[in-house]
């Protein structure tokens, strides 16, 4: 007899406003004091604290950020529900999503009847430099040493879209200004958002000139087997390979397509566009290139609408076919890493109960776009009234392949002769005050053992102009000289070294630890 999972419902939801709980912007609270606030979810909930059989906590690196180990058991303790099973889930910025997935499975499998899922993050316990080091830990070690960071990943995605759509730098900047204006328009009306203000296009350009910089910063839900107004209709997750250089392309995220396919298959939805006018989409948009890609990968809009979909209120505005990120998204509402996706779920739960939506789609990206999760909440009566026969998704995108262990730059250049390769892509980091280029990440494709492999390198900022003139497919020369690896005669540099103390940056002639101090 085939196993039939139990239906899983949302009994209650709660979130604290997003912001820095440091005594200046919001009240001063420790990590565990923030967790204690989660007890407010039980106010008016049909599930009581003593009914909770498991606590699932989603948080990215809580030990590194806040010095809190054995995290889930401690949170169960401060909430007065010790005795329940407890587990910490850490899948980088999709930790909150993974916590809900784990909580769902506990109930669907019959192991528990009532589970408390929590997403919590307190990034302001760490300095900016230390937070940068912690976040960089999700990047492949070798690629991180050459200077790859999460913003660099976002920049490579943006470049891929620019090249695919034929956009100039000026056109992409204008597009980014419009997307940011949209996010801040909705964030300004969200009382729980961190950045509650509008940002006109004119101000966006002024901030480009002045390099003004903003930072972000935390919620939870009770899942139950007892019928409620809202149920979890679909849950899906997907991964991609850990390295950036070995991926087939950057203009789409296979992990999202796979996660969405699994969620829709579980919910029995053949075409999510059949939910037009009834669905709110809450997707992961920390960088301007991610949002338009997400809507296509989720199957919400066709690929030919990728560029304009978020700018067309008839499609994605409050009264559009697929209202999207109406609370401001990650850029406007805030992005407290492991808690962000739980916020999305709470917001969708509220929108279903309070604004008349039939369903809410939440989408989260973890790591360097390689640990993605999609969850569909739906009104129970709406789910019961439609066909929902589950199916296995098919035709999912293939992934790139990691290079074999013996395929290395050292092996490539072992013959002592220069090697011809081709340019794939690159991005450069600039000083936020002077505008001077600091370092460049470049991806080069070379043939080795009758196959082509891509390699990622770091170059000094002084080489920016030479790299900026390259287009995909241009010939690139790799060679070794005097112990150095050269790319078109430019020396390869390693900007970070992973040590037992964390990430170290090579500055000048020596080492500089990421403490924010000279």
List the SSEs and their pairings:
Blueprint: E1 9-14, H1 31-37, E2 54-58, H2 62-66, H3 71-78, E3 85-89, H4 95-108, E4 114-119, H5 128-136, H6 141-145, H7 150-165, H8 169-187, H9 201-210, E5 220-224, E6 230-239, H10 254-267, E7 279-282, H11 290-297, H12 313-316, H13 329-333, H14 340-355, E8 359-364, E9 371-379, H15 380-385, H16 409-412, E10 419-430, E11 437-448, E12 451-460, H17 464-468, E13 475-481, E14 484-487, E15 490-491, E16 496-499, E17 502-507, E18 510-513
Parallel strand pairs: 2-3, 2-4, 7-8
Antiparallel strand pairs: 1-5, 1-6, 4-5, 6-9, 8-9, 10-11, 10-13, 11-12, 13-14, 14-15, 16-17, 17-18
Helix pairs in contact: 4-14
**Tally of individual domains:** 2
How far is it from the N-terminal to the C-terminal residue, by CA? 66 Å
Q: Estimate the helix proportion, in percent.
A: 25-40%
Looking at the structure, what is the overall shape? globular
Average pLDDT across residues?
86
Overview of this structure, please?
The protein is an alpha+beta fold and 518 residues long. It contains 17 helices and 18 strands. A hairpin with a 6-residue loop joins strand 8 (359-364) and strand 9 (371-379). 50% of the residues are buried.
